[in-house]
Design goal:
The protein has about 80 residues and is an alpha+beta fold. It has helices spanning about 10-15, 15-30, 70-80, and strands at about 5, 40, 55, 60-65. α2 crosses α3 (about 70-80). The chain starts with a strand and ends with a helix. The chain binds FE2/S2 (inorganic) cluster (FES). FE2/S2 (inorganic) cluster binds near residues 10, 12, 47, 48 and 51.
Length: about 80
């Protein structure tokens, strides 16, 4: 099962990670991917100035400075990986 690690460290939270998490979980639900993708709140990913940050495993694909466009890209990426 793919795992999404969304950084909830202090810098990413101050840059909007909490809102990004809610938006991500809603988008996964809308796309029918809840239960097929694990969404995990991670600690600091050592890219604080670029946050909010997100890492997808397996594969190690990262997104920085999450925007709604990035979330659309993430959903397309997950669908392309045959989740
Ligand atoms: S707090 Fe998110 S990368 Fe450091």
């Amino acid at each position: 099962m793919p795992r999404i690690y969304l950084c909830m460290g202090p810098h990413c939270r101050s840059r909007g990670a909490t809102d990004a998490r809610a938006t991500l979980e809603h988008a996964l639900w809308q796309a029918g991917l809840l239960g097929r993708v694990e969404c995990i709140a991670s600690g600091c990913q050592d890219r604080c100035a670029l946050g909010p940050n997100l890492l997808v495993q397996p594969g190690g694909r990262r997104w920085h400075g999450l925007t709604p466009q990035h979330l659309r890209e993430l959903l397309a990426f997950l669908k392309d990986t045959d989740v």
